[in-house]
Specification:
single chain; about 650 residues; alpha+beta; Jelly Rolls; Lysozyme-like; serine acetyltransferase, domain 1; six-stranded mixed β-sheet; 23 strands; about 15% strand; elongated; disordered N terminus; DUF4214 domain-containing protein; Amidase/PGRP_sf
């Protein structure tokens, strides 16, 4: 983190402690296991049918209700109803997913497509068939391979037929309009695998790139110029990996072109919903839906792979989407102009009025915390992002946008995604992801910084669990500071620094007990020792020598003659204790104590602006409070991830 940002990040902690509690529903999933096909049988079939939307003047007065077979009959929207034209019912008994596409450069904004589906002879209400709000970033491999624009894919499940409706205009629909029909099988048999909360046995497909590490086609674009101030190094994952259903398990096809990587790593996460039906009844149906969406993205839209990096179903099962997303900063197609350096996580279903389940929120938080933690990003922070722009983007190319690190798709595009209820869940998701990303490395860092050793397995499990449950980071620091191990080490260090000797047994026990009980603050221990007769005698046994030694030991410099004269007069009036308190609690001493804390916890000295804030803070609140603020900062968290 640039030094200019340090004070602001620490200052923010005053108002918003790192591990502050945000209410989240009980994350226990409704199903403890999922059935995953051992082998997906049958190919995904994609059929693209010519679709014609006639001009208003050519529309027939009669509305046909005969079901047409799209394999043998044309699909024409020519029946006028209330200012729109609609198709006859289209047989969909062999498919589960539909979409409408058109040539990439065609303006289809006026179509406003709608759809309804018939199941067991009953029609649903008409609903919008959303024009896709997802586009590749300009210049990337997906943009180079993209074939067509279109609507989002829509899951219709077991519907027997659908009807499409479009705005009736004098021009009709554009040329080369197509209805895409996608069908696949749900395997009858499967194997049971652990739920999304089961552990770290994560399956993943390998990522194929033309150069071994990134796509040669991407060139300078994946230098990540779109993102400001990001280190290029990719760090090891910080949080424990959640259980992720691999591409092999859900039956993914291999990507059809080499995928771009963001050279600067991941800097943010975009949360989406697929906006389809929530009526899927099993994990097998969820996987079928994902397979169909992948086929629509690849075959109808022309992208290299499924656009999303991860998908989470309504039971909280996490699926690896785009190949390699579990281990590499793969650039997806999920938020046009903001794809590079962001991980796209989509909730399977529609979350406009229905809130994502507790299990879904937990899993979205877990995969975001896991992936962003690998790059030292704070899920509760913000990031300056220079957008690449693009169709449907809220911001022109080259605009720098200060985004939440975990943002909703609507924050960057003209879209309702991830739905009102989905968007309302983001604060809880951010808070939970933050705990997941940083809890374990934070525990390891504090043990190393305060105790000079690694954490034992029991301590790691205990404190990680408490942080995940909402305990503030300062609680861990305070508990270590009250431990016998820490207190006795600090007492011994103070004896060596001030009295130039090891503590005797009774002295060590007495001071250790006082520190552990809170009767003596750790920062005041040195102040107490310089008040002792032993220190006075060791300093020379007279007031002038005593003051001179205090300056050397506390302020680490020689005292000016005028300063010695001043404090000798004060001793005559109020005794030696006033000198100890005055020098030890001075702003000059406080600034040195701040430098000490920064050296221990941030591996650097405090900058002048930081001293102006934290010197007075130490004077007023002491070492424990200052430590709590430092370990709650983004800088300390990033350092924790870097080291552990």
């Amino acid at each position: 983190m640039p030094q200019s940002l340090i004070v602001s990040s620490l200052a923010l902690s005053l108002a918003a402690p790192l591990f502050g509690t945000v209410a989240l529903p009980d994350p226990t999933p409704s199903a403890t296991s999922v059935v995953v096909p051992g082998e997906v049988t049958g190919d995904v079939v994609v059929e693209e049918v010519d679709l014609r939307v006639v001009p208003a003047a050519e529309a027939d007065a009669a509305e046909s209700q005969d079901v047409v077979d799209p394999a043998t009959e044309p699909v024409v929207a020519d029946a006028p109803v209330d200012g729109r034209v609609q198709t006859p019912p289209v047989d969909t008994s062999a498919v589960q997913t539909i979409g409408v596409t058109w040539p990439d450069e065609t303006d289809a904004a006026g179509l406003a497509p709608k759809v309804r589906a018939m199941t067991d002879g009953t029609w649903t209400a008409w609903q919008d068939l959303e024009v896709s709000d997802v586009h590749p970033d300009a210049g990337g491999v997906d943009a180079q391979h993209a074939l067509r624009a279109g609507t989002d894919s829509l899951w219709i499940g077991d519907a027997e037929a659908v009807q499409l409706s479009f705005v009736a205009t004098t021009a009709g629909g554009p040329d080369d309009l197509r209805l895409t029909l996608v069908g696949s099988e749900v395997p009858a048999d499967g194997v049971t695998v652990p739920s999304a909360y089961g552990g770290a046995d994560v399956g993943t497909a390998s990522l194929t790139t033309s150069s071994g590490t990134r796509s040669d086609r991407s060139g300078a674009r994946v230098v990540n110029a779109a993102v400001l101030g990001q280190p290029a190094a990719v760090r090891a994952a910080a949080a424990a990996a959640p259980r992720v259903i691999s591409r092999a398990e859900w039956g993914a096809r291999p990507q059809q072109c080499a995928l771009d990587l963001a050279a600067g790593g991941l800097v943010a996460a975009a949360v989406h919903h697929t906006a389809g039906s929530n009526s899927y009844a099993s994990a097998a149906q969820a996987m079928q839906q994902i397979r169909n969406d992948q086929a629509y993205h690849m075959d109808a839209r022309g992208w290299c792979d499924l656009g999303y990096n991860f998908i989470v179903d309504k039971w909280g099962n996490i699926y690896e989407g785009r190949a390699g997303s579990l281990t590499q900063p793969v650039i997806g197609v999920h938020a046009g102009g903001f794809n590079t350096g962001t991980v796209g996580v989509s909730m399977l279903g529609e979350y406009g009025a229905t809130a994502p389940s507790a299990a879904t929120q937990e899993s979205v938080s877990r995969i975001i915390g896991y992936r962003l933690g690998a790059y030292g990003k704070n899920p509760a922070g913000t990031v300056p992002y220079r957008t690449l722009g693009g169709e449907n983007s809220r911001f022109a190319a080259g605009t720098t946008v200060n985004l939440p690190v975990v943002f909703g798709h609507r924050d960057t595009a003209y879209t309702a995604c991830p739905g009102n209820a989905g968007y309302a869940a983001l604060p809880a998701i951010r808070s939970r992801a933050q705990k997941i990303a940083y809890s374990e490395p934070l525990v390891k860092a504090l043990y190393a910084d305060m105790l000079g050793r690694g954490v034992d397995p029991t301590g790691l499990a205990t404190w990680t669990g408490l942080l995940l449950s909402g305990a503030p980071a300062s609680t861990l620091g305070d508990n270590i500071a009250r431990s016998r191990e820490y207190a006795s080490a600090r007492v011994a260090a103070a004896y060596r620094e001030i009295l130039r000797r090891e503590p005797d047994g009774p002295g060590l026990e007495d001071w250790t007990t006082r520190v552990m009980s809170g009767r003596v603050k750790i920062e005041d221990l040195r102040g107490w020792l310089v008040s002792s007769q032993e220190y006075y005698q060791r300093s020379g046994g007279n007031d002038r020598a005593f003051v001179a030694q205090l300056y050397r030991d506390i302020l680490r410099r020689d005292a000016a003659q005028s300063e010695i004269d001043h404090w000798v007069r004060e001793i005559a009036r109020g005794g030696r204790g006033i000198v100890n308190a005055g020098i030890w609690r001075s702003l000059e001493s406080a600034n040195l104590r701040v430098h000490e804390a920064f050296d221990v916890y941030l591996d650097r000295r405090a900058d002048p602006t930081g001293l102006a804030t934290w010197g007075p803070y130490w004077q007023a609140n002491g070492e424990d409070a200052l430590r709590g603020m430092i370990i709650g900062s983004d800088e300390y968290l990033a350092r924790s991830v870097r080291l552990f």
